[in-house]
TrEMBL record:
Any one biological process term the GO annotation gives: DNA integration
InterPro entries: DNA_brk_join_enz, Integrase-like_cat_sf, Integrase_recombinase_N, Tyrosine_recombinase_XerCD
Transmembrane segments: none
Family: Belongs to the 'phage' integrase family.
Molecular function in Gene Ontology: DNA binding
Sorted UniProt keywords: DNA integration, DNA recombination, DNA-binding
Organism taxonomic ancestry: Bacteria, Pseudomonadati, Pseudomonadota, Gammaproteobacteria, Enterobacterales
The protein's name in its UniProt record: Tyr recombinase domain-containing protein
């Protein structure tokens, strides 16, 4: 790489790229230097371009403490500029089309040459918008609209000039695209839009990112997502705000969406939602100097959540153009799905059920089993493939006789119950071994004590909306670690093993989806009235070698605490 191709704001020291920028503010010279902590020129250029904007905001804020956070100019000023730019688009387009149609006789070659010139200019403008690496031109480019709005100039910061310069460039792109459409026989937006309605709705057309995030979260709140899911979305949306700033959403371009995607790959671990809402992302990254970055899977989860947010804005009419967030996920290290979704082995399952809780009905430090879920939860996960959180929220009346088969009903009929997806609504027939161990007898005994409208395991409390959190921790600490299981084994890995056993029995996709609560055919009821075939399929799974040492349930006296009562 020749030195001439390296931008003036980048230099290299000990194989690491550094950013430098010199500012003059209120007569004082300020030089800003920062290690970008990368040896990649492309990565350094991307970070430096974003840092230039951040530096301009910081310097501008020194002399303008009343500016809005993240350097956003007043809404009224933005609306005046947008209205003027709409008029400019119409004016520029009219000039170009008049130049073409009022000229001498044209032939096909002239048309192709003219269209090629238009495309080249549009491409050049888009590149300038994307890189935005010529701050010396911001005032000149912004003057195209500010010369007609001189009263605004005194209120603008250097960052505002940068924003306006980008808006002017985007307006020029729009004008050239409209010119091309008209020459080829189509219509331009400004020809088919009423000036009156445009002026009348200009204020409502400006939608700021923070407002959209609030609307989106309010709408999602009605969907009964778990607290854990809400927190994850809030984290991803805070990340979005921290990166883009509180800008009008129409200004978020495809190129900035690509920058966002690329930056996710180097995001430090453990960024807090609160700090992202208060501080621009690149400033946070430079302060953290983290050695560990988030996993690629986590980065792609953020990318997908943010893309859904922008798609919602597009679908609801707030976002005028395409979704700026790329669909393509970041490439993950090569790894098989099997490795990513660990299933507990039969050998480890044997170790689980050789514990004294199952073979002797003795607790860890008590003569009896401390709580019923210590005994029943691992068994339910083994025999049914149920999600641990679904099992924790079962009610007595969720154990139903469907035809001649005892089943678990996964539903949301009772307090706190939620379906992970609409497809989670289902019946799971109980394996014959689970019946022999005495699960239905336990349900009958509990019904006699507390009634049907009570939870099977009321002692389990929610942590951040998830009831399986504490039981999962207890299992890992007292069963997995003490019995010498694979460190990847959890209550959830019984579910993966259950599915694997169904696959080995050549279960159809229809049965797999129904039993696991996954998306399947949109036809028919989720709650079948005849589960005979599914019952036969489940009973074909051979669990005998895993549970042969288990002592069957006798009565409620097996447990020290039942339904909050000490026995």
């Amino acid at each position: 790489m020749t030195s001439n191709s390296i931008p003036h704001y980048l230099y290299k020291r000990n194989h690491t790229w550094w950013f430098r920028k010199r500012f003059v503010s209120q007569g004082n010279a300020i030089e800003y230097r920062l290690s970008l902590q990368t040896a990649s020129f492309q990565r350094a250029r991307l970070l430096a371009l974003r840092l230039q904007t951040l530096c301009q905001q910081l310097v501008a804020s020194l002399g303008a403490p009343k500016k809005q956070k993240n350097g956003v100019m007043e809404k009224s000023a933005q609306e005046q500029i947008r209205a003027k730019l709409r008029a400019k688009i119409a004016e520029w387009t009219a000039e170009e089309t008049e130049h073409w149609f009022c000229g001498a006789t044209r032939n096909e070659g002239d048309l192709n040459d003219y269209l090629e010139t238009l495309d080249m200019v549009v491409s050049d403008l888009k590149e300038r918008i994307a890189y935005d690496d010529k701050p010396s031109l911001h005032r000149v480019e912004a003057s195209a609209v500010l010369d007609e709005l001189p009263h605004l100039k005194a209120t603008l910061s250097e960052y505002d000039y940068q924003v306006i310069a980008r808006m002017v460039a985007q307006a020029k792109v729009k004008s050239l695209q409209d010119t091309r459409a008209i020459i080829l026989g189509g219509d331009a937006d400004w020809l088919t839009t009423s000036p009156v309605s445009s002026q009348g709705t200009s204020r409502s057309d400006v939608h700021f990112l923070s407002d959209m995030i609030s609307k989106y979260q309010a709408e999602n709140a009605s969907k009964e997502h778990s607290q854990k899911s809400q927190d994850k979305y809030a984290h991803s949306l805070a990340l979005t705000f921290s990166f883009f700033g509180n800008v009008p959403i129409s200004e978020i371009s495809l190129s900035s969406g690509r920058e966002f995607r690329e930056l996710l790959a180097s995001l430090p671990e453990k960024l807090k939602t609160k700090e992202m809402l208060e501080t621009p992302l690149l400033e946070l990254i430079s302060k953290k100097k983290a050695t560990k970055t988030i996993a690629t899977a986590t980065a792609n989860d953020h990318l997908e959540k943010v893309r859904r947010f922008f798609q919602w804005m597009l679908d609801t009419g707030y976002l005028p153009d395409d979704n700026p967030i790329p669909k393509e996920p970041l490439p993950e290290p090569k790894q098989s799905n099997k490795a990513a979704r660990h299933a507990i082995s039969d050998e480890d399952a044997v170790k689980v059920f050789n514990h004294q809780i199952f073979t002797e009905h003795r607790g860890l430090v008590t003569k009896k089993i401390q709580h019923p879920h210590h005994f029943w939860l691992p068994l339910l996960c083994l025999f049914t493939g149920i999600r641990p959180n679904e099992a924790c929220l079962l009610y007595v009346d969720d154990i139903e006789l469907v035809g001649k088969a005892w089943c678990i009903r996964i539903d949301k009929r009772f307090d706190e119950q939620k379906l992970k997806t609409p497809n989670a609504l289902r019946y799971i027939p109980l394996h014959k071994c689970l019946l022999e161990i005495g699960f239905v007898k336990y349900v009958h005994d509990l019904r006699s004590l507390v009634g049907g409208n009570s939870r099977l395991f009321p002692e389990i409390k929610a942590i951040k909306g998830y009831h399986s959190h504490k039981p999962g921790e207890w299992f890992n600490r007292n069963i997995r670690d003490k019995q010498g299981l694979d460190p990847s084994s959890t209550l959830y890995t019984f579910r993966h093993a259950f599915r694997d056993k169904l696959v080995m029995l050549n279960a159809t996709d229809e049965y797999l989806n129904r039993l696991m609560g996954h998306k399947g055919s949109p036809y028919g009821s989720s709650l079948l009235t005849d589960v005979t075939c599914m019952k036969e399929l489940i009973d074909r799974i051979d669990f005998a070698g895993i549970v042969q040492g288990i002592k069957p349930y006798a009565n409620l006296q097996d447990f020290r605490n039942v339904a909050g009562r000490t026995k």
